[in-house]
């Protein structure tokens, strides 16, 4: 009788321990993941991964000057996929590649969970933009250009570029320098992690001025609050 | 008084799928071509862009892309004893309008008809004897074979970039494709689309029952594709807003995404939208077309003279245009004589729903117009009809194209039609139901036909087309037999409840079925039973070609668009390679 009771408690104990260690079904539980992600973001890892915050800002607000993107409130699945793609070669970036490779799969997941939960105030666009450029950007973002066979960004990235979680990142409030870099990566093939291949096609159909226009337009839109 | 315009080499009635193909082929041959389109010009950007294109109420319920039936509709009756009344709101079928025609709002299902379809009378007689076709069915051959059509199917499919898995390349059977298809000269231009979960459940069950599942050939593309015209198409994003909508992603093949970017830049091509053709004009002999009379959007009447006239309107509007113009002998059901309007046919469809419990997530919203998996084991004459007492067949497939919130809420039989119990059932079943479509053929019978309505007129004062149609017993028997087969597959798929009823008469014009209206300007080798010869040239007026699903002598099991595109290319080839060198009949009657 007694041993049976102890057996039950023992089972309960191990379940409890599992929960405390933050592992259920092989995945860190969200709260633990967020805490681990926060730690990585601020302090980096023992294995040598640099703290994310050193480039992406204390609140995930990014930095226009270095072309470091806002991460705050991007969909968790989107961020986790990008980190995985930095390690598998489908997104080649000399800065992020080595960092992502220093993270374990759980650490990447945790970092994505943390940044998805943040909200950060809108930054100020770094550079002035001509009204004509912003008009062109608005047109491309919300309507597209049939001559260039470019569809509206809003089709996938949501009205106003607010994102369509879990797959499509928000563009609204993103630093123009990053958006231009991202479009360039799509164009030159350093980024090839869109299974539909829509983004490489669209980016290649945009002129250099178009890429600058759409980036400048979105940089001036309010970033969305985190979605859960 | 109509203002007479300068003569052109060719005039197109309608700039949809047929008009775009003929426009391209004729301008390529050096002709000056005027395209007359009754509807609006429209393009991927800006007209089909999100979020407005996903307005289900506007496009799917209120049918914004369809022929304006406040101006121009069809009157309907089930049989000649009834008084036909105008269809004031489209239901059973959805004729498109505007640049690109119905090929803008289609689903992209791109099937070849079989040789046994093109030779339905002769094949049936060869296999089952001369008494097998009942005398009350006016089934006939097309005057072409699958081998005649192969080149043109190939051309059309490579224009569109169709995504699929070949089952037979030059006689060699390819695993995973449709084993019943006639030989094709090469594989599909792009690989098949990804298979949704409900379709995978169907594939497994159908395979275990001994059938031959294969991916549906789709003009919503699985990957980017540049067609032979140099026009680039993109990948389908499985948005679930395909049929009744335009595609925002450049992913659905349509005239806008395959041909118009080239055609509209051609200096030999002139597009005039908002141009309602009132009639085709003939010379005094009645054997030569001189052009057309049309009215523009401001109500001004024009005469557009042309050496060559191409009728590429929606199928039943082709029939109406000939009747309004007095071309060919109208069909008389009493005597069985006459050909224009004869052999109108449709499609015989039914649905089986497979209701799972909440452990099976179907995600019906994550679909594409022509995705999914089907079997051709019961298509055409791929099975023995000897003891069955009917002709024709159907494909059966899990090819759901959407789970849109207003239109899509499958509930099991016995569920109240409204109120809290209905709402509860909708929530319970929405994400846990797979639907099987039984998409069946439609035989021609002398009582089903099209003529001009004696009472009702359109906005231009011209008689409306009158449709007289009911399902022949043959097709109801076919539907009963094959709906049973689909119920068996549904049970094998593991549904907790599997429900579906065969198509039953009388035909109901208010309930959506398909927009596969066929016949009325039938093609064939015998002028006493056809309006156009096998090159789609009018028997009566040799400088007039009539092209569309109106050419089908009866309708086959599969969707019609691939055959319409192939027929258009075949007619264009005959015009360019033969007719232009020596204008006149391409075949002697």
Give descriptors for this structure:
A: disordered N terminus, B: 589 residues, alpha/beta, 8-stranded mixed sheet, 24 strands
Overall geometric form of chain B: globular
Beta-strand fraction estimate of chain A = under 5%
Tally of separate helices of chain B:
14
- What number is the mean pLDDT of chain B? 98
- Radius of gyration from the alpha-carbon trace of chain B, in angstroms: 23 Å
The percentage of residues in β strands of chain B lies in 15-25%
Note the gap between the termini of chain B.
37 Å
Helices and strands of chain B: which structural class? alpha/beta
Helix content of chain A: 40-55%
Beta strand count of chain B: 24
Q: How many helix segments of chain A?
A: 11
The pair of chains with the biggest contact is: A-B, 17 and 17 residues
Overall pLDDT confidence of chain A? 88
Can you summarize the main beta sheet of chain B? Answer: 8 strands, mixed
Shape descriptor of chain A reads globular
What is the end-to-end distance of chain A?
46 Å
Element-level helix/strand string of chain A? HEEHHHHHHEEHHHH
Low-confidence stretches of chain A: 1-24
Can I get a quick summary?
The complex is a heterodimer of chains A (228) and B (589). With 228 residues, chain A is mainly alpha-helical.
Notes on the structure:
The complex is a heterodimer of chains A (228) and B (589). Chain A is mostly helical. Chain A has eleven helices and four strands, in the order H-E-E-H-H-H-H-H-H-E-E-H-H-H-H. Chain A has helices at 2-20, 30-43, 53-56, 76-88, 96-101, 105-117, 131-142, 154-157, 176-188, 198-205, 208-219; strands spanning 23-24, 27-28, 144-145, 150-151. In chain A, the strands form two sheets. Chain A has a two-stranded antiparallel sheet. In chain A, helix 4 (76-88) runs antiparallel to helix 6, helix 7 packs across helix 11 and helix 9 packs across helix 10. Chain A starts with a helix and ends in a 9-residue tail after the last helix. Chain B has helices at 17-28, 44-47, 56-61, 102-105, 115-118, 120-128, 146-160, 197-208, 255-258, 260-263, 315-325, 420-429, 473-492, 561-579; strands at 3-4, 8-13, 33-36, 74-77, 85-86, 168-169, 172-173, 214-215, 225-226, 232-233, 269-272, 276-282, 289-295, 301-311, 342-345, 348-355, 373-375, 394-398, 433-440, 449-457, 463-468, 497-501, 518-520, 544-546. Chain B contains 14 helices and 24 strands. With 589 residues, chain B is of the alpha/beta class. Classes of the chains: A mainly alpha (228), B alpha/beta (589). The A-B interface holds A 142-146, 149-152, 154-156, 159, 196-198, 201 and B 43-46, 49-51, 223-224, 232, 234-235, 237, 248-250, 261.
């Amino acid at each position: 009788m007694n041993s049976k009771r102890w057996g039950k408690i023992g089972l309960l104990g191990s379940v409890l321990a599992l929960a405390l260690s933050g592992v259920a079904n092989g995945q860190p539980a969200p709260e633990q993941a967020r805490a681990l992600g926060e730690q990585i973001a601020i302090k980096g890892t023992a294995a040598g991964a640099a703290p994310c915050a050193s480039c992406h800002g204390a609140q995930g607000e990014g930095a226009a000057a270095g072309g470091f993107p806002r991460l705050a409130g991007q969909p968790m699945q989107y961020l986790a996929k990008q980190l995985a793609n930095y390690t598998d070669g489908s997104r080649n970036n000399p800065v992020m590649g080595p960092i992502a490779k220093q993270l374990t799969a759980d650490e990447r997941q945790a970092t994505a969970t943390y940044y998805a939960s943040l909200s950060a105030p809108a930054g100020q666009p770094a550079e002035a933009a001509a009204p004509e450029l912003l008009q062109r950007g608005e047109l491309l973002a919300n309507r597209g250009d049939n001559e260039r066979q470019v569809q509206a960004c809003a089709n996938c990235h949501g009205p106003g570029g607010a994102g369509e979680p879990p797959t499509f990142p928000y563009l609204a409030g993103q630093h123009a320098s990053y958006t231009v870099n991202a479009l360039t990566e799509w164009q030159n093939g350093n980024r090839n992690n869109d299974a539909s291949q829509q983004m490489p096609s669209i980016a290649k159909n945009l002129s250099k001025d178009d890429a600058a226009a759409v980036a400048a337009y979105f940089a001036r839109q309010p970033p969305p609050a985190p979605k859960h | 008084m109509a203002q007479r315009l300068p003569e052109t080499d060719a005039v197109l009635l309608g700039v949809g799928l047929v008009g775009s193909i003929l426009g391209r082929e004729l301008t390529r041959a050096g002709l000056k071509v005027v395209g007359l389109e009754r509807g609006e010009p429209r393009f991927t950007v800006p007209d089909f862009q999100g979020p407005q294109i996903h307005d289900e109420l506007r496009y799917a319920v209120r049918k914004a892309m369809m022929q304006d039936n406040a101006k121009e509709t069809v009157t309907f009756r089930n049989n000649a004893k009834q008084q036909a009344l105008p269809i004031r709101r489209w239901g059973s079928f959805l004729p498109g309008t505007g640049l690109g025609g119905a090929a803008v709002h289609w689903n992209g299902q791109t099937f070849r008809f079989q040789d046994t379809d093109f030779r339905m009378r002769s094949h049936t007689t060869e296999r089952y004897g001369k008494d097998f076709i009942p005398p009350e069915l006016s089934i006939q051959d097309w005057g072409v074979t699958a081998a005649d059509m192969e080149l043109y199917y190939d051309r059309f499919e490579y224009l569109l970039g169709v995504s699929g898995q070949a089952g037979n390349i030059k006689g060699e059977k390819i695993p995973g494709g449709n084993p019943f298809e006639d030989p094709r000269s090469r594989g599909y231009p792009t690989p098949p689309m990804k298979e949704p979960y409900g379709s995978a459940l169907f594939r497994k069950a159908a395979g275990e029952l001994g059938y031959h599942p294969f991916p549906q050939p789709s003009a919503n593309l699985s990957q980017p594709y540049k067609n032979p015209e140099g026009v680039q198409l993109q990948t389908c994003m499985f948005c679930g807003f395909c049929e009744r909508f335009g595609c925002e992603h450049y992913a659905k093949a349509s005239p806008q995404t395959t041909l118009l970017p080239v055609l509209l830049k051609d200096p030999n091509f002139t597009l005039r939208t908002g141009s309602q053709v009132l009639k085709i004009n003939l010379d005094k002999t009645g054997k030569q077309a001189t052009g057309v009379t049309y009215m523009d959007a401001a109500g001004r009447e024009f005469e557009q003279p042309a050496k060559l006239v191409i009728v590429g309107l929606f199928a039943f509007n082709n029939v109406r245009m000939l009747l309004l113009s007095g071309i060919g002998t109208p069909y008389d059901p009493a005597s069985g004589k006459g050909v224009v309007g004869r052999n109108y046919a449709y499609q015989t469809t039914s649905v089986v729903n497979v209701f799972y419990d909440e452990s099976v997530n179907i995600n019906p919203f994550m679909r594409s117009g022509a995705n999914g998996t089907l079997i051709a084991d019961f298509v055409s004459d791929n099975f023995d009809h000897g003891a069955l007492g009917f002709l024709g067949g159907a494909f059966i497939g899990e090819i759901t194209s959407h789970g849109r919130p207003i239109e899509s809420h499958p509930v099991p039989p016995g569920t109240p039609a409204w109120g809290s119990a209905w709402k509860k059932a909708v929530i319970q079943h929405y994400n846990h139901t797979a639907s099987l479509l039984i998409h069946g053929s439609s035989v021609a019978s002398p009582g089903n036909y099209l003529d001009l309505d004696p009472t009702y007129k359109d906005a231009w004062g011209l008689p409306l087309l009158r449709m007289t149609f009911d399902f022949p017993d043959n097709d109801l028997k076919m539907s009963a037999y094959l709906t049973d087969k689909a119920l068996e597959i549904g049970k094998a798929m593991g549904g907790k409840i599997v429900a579906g009823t065969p198509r039953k008469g009388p035909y109901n014009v208010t309930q959506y079925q398909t927009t596969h209206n066929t016949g009325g300007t039938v093609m064939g080798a015998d002028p006493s039973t056809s309006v156009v010869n096998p090159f789609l040239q009018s028997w009566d007026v040799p400088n007039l070609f009539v092209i569309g699903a109106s050419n089908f002598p009866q309708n086959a099991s599969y969707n019609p668009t691939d055959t319409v595109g192939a027929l258009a290319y075949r007619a264009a080839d005959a015009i360019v390679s033969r007719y232009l060198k020596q204008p006149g009949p391409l075949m002697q009657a």
